[in-house]
Design a protein that fits this description.
The chain is built from 9 helices and 21 strands. With about 375 residues, it is α+β, with helices and mostly antiparallel strands. It has 2 domains: about 140 residues, no CATH class; about 140 residues. Strands 4-3-2-1-6-7-8-9-5 form a 9-stranded antiparallel beta sheet.
């Protein structure tokens, strides 16, 4: 009897072990999914996209393809998008692989933390054509668990994609699209009506000043530095067209005009409110006022000079105002919708006077 009970017990334990194995073993049946081993995002699907949505931690940025074929940041005043950034992002998705199927078990899916971290591609009508939700990073620290759309399946991808949800960072910050080789003439403004005109006959010809000071010669490398700074002008932030700081900065402009070899002009005006120092009224110290005046070696009261003190208002941010002679230039429309700040060094790095562009000619 005891032997019979033992046999039954062993059989029961064996059956339970089989059940446990079947429950916990890897779900290989779904590994036949055709997406395993393939690119996370295939080029054919990417080519159909007319919209891109990136969401993470409660923030969302949306980009759309315009009818003119250019991408715009719908979440940031419909400004032109940085196409190179979009291309890199899509390339990262294309180079990432769906490495393996993980689970379709609802309990295990719940442990993979699929929340609001997602990437969507939409067609021209705004319908989803591809969507992936990102779950947690595995303990190894590499890749992410992923889920396509609302499918009750989880996969693993060794992807390394940054979900950037700052709309401004997707915008094309370029304010001047000219290349240095296209510029034939530069009118360099120094404020208060002072200016200097330099020009060249062709792109590889030396720069020449229209009216060089007597005994001075132009420094071509200084002119090239000015041209590089202007043709690489980018904004660091933007604000509404009625920004009061911009209105104040516009009272202190330095204006530069670039003329191309085909006769078009681009005007770049940079301005900022200058630093202001105001002398403080001297305030007598109560203790010093009551104390008897100190006496010098001659026995007479010693008079101490009062060091002046100032209230200083720092210089304001630098604003850029750009306009093109080409009425179809995108920058003209952009300037009607936003005001643009640029980095301080862009302004302070430019020559402050014409003297900085010349040096004395060597005597023969």
């Amino acid at each position: 009897m005891k032997l019979r009970n033992l046999v039954i017990t062993v059989a029961l334990l064996a059956a339970l072990s089989v059940v446990a194995y079947l429950k916990n073993r890897p779900e290989s049946a779904a590994s036949a999914d055709p997406r395993v081993g393939k690119a996370l995002l295939d080029p054919e699907t990417a080519a159909k996209a007319a919209g891109l949505v990136v969401a993470d931690q409660g923030k969302t940025v949306e980009l759309k393809l315009g009818t003119d074929g250019s991408w715009r940041v719908a979440s940031y005043y419909d400004m032109p998008a940085d196409f190179e950034k979009i291309a890199r992002f899509v390339q990262d998705l294309n180079e990432s692989k769906v490495e393996r199927f993980v689970t379709s078990n609802p309990e295990r899916l719940g442990l993979l933390e699929f929340k609001d971290s997602r990437i969507e591609l939409k067609d021209a009508q705004g319908k989803d054509i591809w969507e992936v939700t990102l779950g947690k990073t595995p303990e190894s620290g590499n890749g992410r668990f992923i889920r396509f759309g609302e499918e009750p399946k989880a996969f693993f991808s060794g992807m390394h994609v940054w979900l950037d949800t700052d709309p401004k960072s997707w915008a094309n910050t370029e304010l001047v699209s000219l290349k240095p080789d296209e510029v034939a003439r530069i009118d360099i403004g120094f404020g208060a009506g002072a200016s200097l005109e330099v020009s060249r006959g062709k792109k590889d010809a030396p720069w020449e000043a229209a009216k060089p000071p007597a005994g001075q010669k132009l420094l071509p490398e200084k002119v090239s530095s000015v041209l590089t700074a202007l043709t690489s002008l980018r904004f660091s932030d933007s604000s509404g067209v009625n920004d009061p700081q911009a209105a104040e900065a516009a009272k202190f402009l330095r204006t530069f005009k670039l003329t191309t070899f085909d006769g078009k002009t681009l005007t770049v005006a940079l301005g900022r409110t200058p630093e202001v120092k105001k002398l403080k009224a001297p305030v007598a110290d109560a203790k010093e006022a009551l104390a008897p005046p100190a006496k010098g070696s001659d026995g007479k009261p010693e008079v101490k000079p009062i060091a002046p003190e100032f209230d200083t208002t720092p210089a304001g941010p630098v604003f850029a105002f750009v306009s093109s002679s080409d009425p179809k230039a995108a920058i003209n429309d952009l300037m009607k919708r936003r005001t643009f700040k640029v980095d301080d060094y862009t302004f302070t790095g430019l020559p402050q006077s014409a003297d900085e562009l010349f040096e004395a000619e060597k005597s023969k």
